[in-house]
What does this fold into?
Amino acid sequence: MTKFSQPNDLEQYRQTLQKQRDTKKTCISICSGTGCHAYASEKVVSAFEDQLKKQNLTNMVDMKRTGCHGFCEKGPIVVIHPHNYCYVKVKPEDVTEIITQTIQQGKPVNRLLYEDPELGKKIVLETDIPFYKNQTRLIFGNNRKIDPKSIDDYIALDGYKALVKTLTKMTPQQVLDEVKKANLRGRGGGGFPTGRKWETTKNASAEPKYVIVNCDEGDPGAYMDRSLMEGNPHSVLEGLIIGAYAIGAHEGFIYVRQEYPLAVENTEHAIKQAEEYGLIGKNILGSGFDFTIKVHRGAGAFVSGESSALMSAIEGRVGEPRPKYIHTAVSGLWNKPTCLNNVETWANVPFIINNGAQWFASMGTPNSTGTKIFSLVGNVNNTGLVEVPMGVTLREIIYDIGGGIPNGKRLKAVQTGGPSGGCIPEKYLDLPVDFDELYNIGSMMGSGGMIVMDEDTCMVDIARYFVNFLSQESCGKCLPCREGLRQMNRILNDITAGKAFEEDLELLEELSEVVQMSALCALGQSAPNPVLSTIKYFRDEYEAHLRGECPSKVCKALINYKIDPAKCKGCGLCTKNCPAEAISGEKKGVHHIDSERCIKCGNCLEVCKFDAVLKTTGKQIPISKR
Amino acid sequence: MTTISLNIDGKTIKAEEGTTVLKAAQKAGINIPTLCHDDRLEPYGACRFCMVEVEKNSRKKLVASCCYPAENGLVVRTKTENIDKIRKLLAELLLSISPSGAHVDIAKQYGVVESRFKQTESPESPCSLCGLCVRYCAEVKNKHAVCFVGRGVDRTIALVPGLSDTCSSCRECFNVCDAGKIVYLVDMIQEISCPPLKSSFKSSD
Amino acid sequence: MAKEKTKSHFVGVRLTEEQKKALYTLQKTSDLSKTDILLRGLEILSEYYALGLDQPPLSIELKKLEEEAIQHLKALKKIKRREESVKQMIQELREVDEIIDEYGGEKNALIQILLKIQEKNHWLPKPALLWVSERLSIPMSQILHIATFYKSFSLEPRGEHLVRVCLGTACHVRNGPKILEAAEQYLGINSGETTSDMKFTLESVNCLGCCALGPVMMIDNEYHGKLTPSQVPNILSSYRVGELSMTEEQQKLAPIAQRPTPKQQR
It folds into this structure.
């Protein structure tokens, strides 16, 4: 493979590829993102490989391991092109039937199709599935068509066209102006105007300049960046090269968290391929622009996702944030101007260049243009990755796309923005989702994690969960964050244990205020958000805990497990599954839980087939020791 | 070196460009409390006691004066309602860690005698994690014999194994320690051969 | 032999079966006649008594020499074991050298280097850290801070199987904490600890990125999703089945102090 030494070479190659690829040829695309991988999608791949070989179909049919499709609840997902049939929860045993029915006869296998619970019927075409239909999969859509290990797949879908346009028709200033006009805002959490950040870096006097892709994605429950980096790495690379050109940087870093080995592998592979094609390296496509990229792995620290901490980590030092009185865009990596943006932000850039700022700004809301990918998780039916234009409401995301709450439960709250964000109660379901609306309501967009919580969620427990998380993930350097979170954690533990008083709630609010004002970095400054937003919208739950009650029946110290004598059939299944030997009863007789021995593990409730185990609250029962 | 002019608590102060707000204030005789600051060491910005309100182009924000660069035309206030809230609560937090140190006076100034917070550390070796011992040993002595270990609420200091024999003859970090932890650690090594570095660090031989 | 003027006397000796066998063996090995053997024995015993070897001071000395010989033998065996562990350490340090060279010995690559060492050994052995400190000219204090700051690193050997229970927010609202409790209960350890037989290390992680499978537990590279607490003991015990002794591979991963000595190996 010789390097493309000029843009025309690439264009000709692209056209050759597009001509070669027969869009009518059957292609089996199997989702191989980490999620489906965990569902053992590789076994499905092997089964297809075996069967195709056995039936001598290997040359007649293409098979592709693609990036994440997004409909993670229903994985492993297999889509057959050009028919566009979408099969869900595919097992290796299903492969023979798919080959016989669909590949050979062109008919769908009904039992493997997605069934819409509302309409009560099977849906044949992928594009008709409500989960996909109601989205605008601008950035994410190509994941289903691309084998992330194939640069040719990306090029055939017009990949690197924006790079060619940039290098041949635009000056760095023009690229910058276009991104500014598009009003692209950072997709990593801050929502800072990307064009302005690029400009500050560009105008800083020191050299050399650097660009960084932040794929640390520490927010629990958020995995959009992983799926993009794993599934379509070239889209991010292309955006990065264009940005570097605009800013005047010649060296780039991609910081991927260590917990994403597949993303690391696919990114390194993509960089190598791009180098081979002459799209990264010296004199890219004969333009005179040099640019190299290195991958840097994280080592397991949420705080290292903060931009100054991330830069410290790249320098080989401890990933502790520093006060950003001088912006990292002016003095960042090794005190040089550095522009750090999130994976999704960079992936938006090629679209802006190809289609223009006006087109981009026509999507979304005036102050939040474009689309956003959310990871819709928690107590929701259609768990997965969802891309919608900014301004779509929470209701549309959770119900039209997400399919609502499982088990007929009621929605209680939606948590956005990760540990820096807040909980939004059900009454705000019609809130349009964009940067400013979420901020005004006491939460934030964050990186895109959207955690749905049903009526069985205890909001005080959620606040305790986040503060506990942050107290361990904090770097511990500054006093207010470290000691403040330590004491907030203690108070919240006391509240959930039924040992707190009204003064403790006031102290909690006072601590939250001071930590917000005085912490060194954004982690500390936003740490009180989950506490403050849950107190604001669910104060009644806090006060119930002070009285010794957990309304959602979650907090162990405040609940009691009892057996309903009217429903108990005496089968003894609960006794068998009790690790504390706390249940006794005669065969076929009513069983009884000894509350002194009970450790509140919930096994009995889980295994009982007669719904005879109840949780009660209101009287403080001490938890017995194991 | 150009001279700039800024306003601190109503006084017009002249300072060299590149100096911090704290230094500029100290030179002009304005007192700002500090805990983790030492003139011999690089600014650290961890204790947050030195926070002040700065105003530029009608925008106000709270910053750590030990790290914030003084600018021409900057308006600084070293005492506001919010700053008082911060200093009072931080002093109270520290009282639950250590009964002695600069924070005791600060707490008294705000009328805090007892802390509302529960005791956190073992009373024999309190540590405010000001980092002065670690930084002194690294920047002044260049020995790097004390280090931070852990993260978040588990963060603490420890002696680097193998270097601690130099500690008992040096002991200079004792002078910068307010709470007492480094004294405790260095004295302890006379009794045990392997310095306490969290049970997680075991010798492999 | 010339006939001596000394008068010779015939002495008959009654021997037991065993003594007869011993005499026969000596005959074969020494090629001496029965009589010569017995006479030689007489000579040696006379010398023994003539030298006073039966007397306490000398016999005590002999015993002392015997004990010293045993001690020396023990020390030699210890040195031999030490030599083997030093050789092992040198091999491990060579591997560390290779890793450092991969990154051109750059200071900036410290975290990347430590990640590779951790992956290879399943922990960060002290000699490796000292060697990194030496080669990269980075003070040990900084390396220790980094090694204890990031969760990927472990300063003590991890168990054979790494059990990670996801406690990300999505798994939290799907009962993740109860899965962790069930694992702690079954293994008898707290999160962050290793079982005393070095089989399992239990940890909690904040998001494995498989939220649709929540609650998730990952053991080594296998995911176990949509779990209920009652399923946990069975899953964990399946990793114990068929394991009776440490295989060679497992021994390599264990720290030197815990590797079985030849005597302990079955």
